[in-house]
Amino acid sequence: xxVDVVTIFPDYLAPLDLSLIGRARRAxxxxxxxxxxxxxxxxxxxxxxxxxxxxxxxxVMRPExxxxxxDELTAAGRPPAxxxxxxxxxxxxxxxxxxxxxxxxxxxxACGRYEGIDQRVxxxxxxxxxxxxxxxxxxxxxxxxxxxxxxxxxxxxxxxGVLGNAGSLVEESHSDGLxxxxxxxxxxxxRGREVPEILRSGDHGRIARWRRDQALLRTASRRPDLIAGLxxxxxxxxxxxxxxxxxxxxxxxxxxx
Length: 257
Ligand code: ADE
What we know:
By secondary structure, the protein is an alpha/beta fold. The protein is built from 10 helices and 9 strands. The strands form 3 sheets. The protein has a 5-stranded parallel beta sheet. Strands 3-4 form a two-stranded antiparallel sheet. Helix 1 (19-26) links the parallel strand 1 and strand 2. Helix 2 runs parallel beside helix 4 and helix 3 packs across helix 5. The longest helix is centred in the C-terminal third of the chain and has 19 residues, at 204-222. The chain is elongated. The two termini are 43 Å apart. Residues 86-88, 135-137, 139-141, 143-144, 147 line the site of adenine.
């Protein structure tokens, strides 16, 4: 996958050299180019923002540098790309979106700052290439850079070959619509706390059922919205019996099974 990031703070993206993303880049699975938006400014102050039309607090990013940057990065001969714009008004990011983005050959991220980017940049881009405005959640951060880091961590680990052990993709939180249950490692006792006996039993059938139960109980208590959103048939009779015995209300369709 090829990734371009346009930002006024290229240094914010330095962590992309580290850890598993850095390794994926060195292995040739991922290529990342970070571009300073000010490269596409032409005035002495290298201006990228201005006051909002209609008044109000803060500054808005001017369209000209963004237009020039996106023209250059999407010029004929360059691989086709999807533009991803992190913004608190975007579609909510989740594992399913990470999976869709991981299947794209090329992503261009446009990092907004201040009150955001002039809307005409997004509208103009959308006439030429697919655009996704994406929000990490219902909160506001200073700009898109940290969102890009989070999105790229979620996306690149889904690219085949990036994770050493692809099995960890199967058993992790959100891969099957549930939160993962608790995990333990050595030592078996620590400060008087025991690793659950069943995990040391070697009985893989019972361990799998225990893990499923823990995932169900944790999800029902912390994220009832995820249980309610499971497709019909995702909970079997044992799942339903467990949740009902633990006092959770289930969606009507599941109880009727
Ligand atoms: N930029 C500012 N806030 C954001 C959010 N919640 N998600 C993505 N990008 C943002």
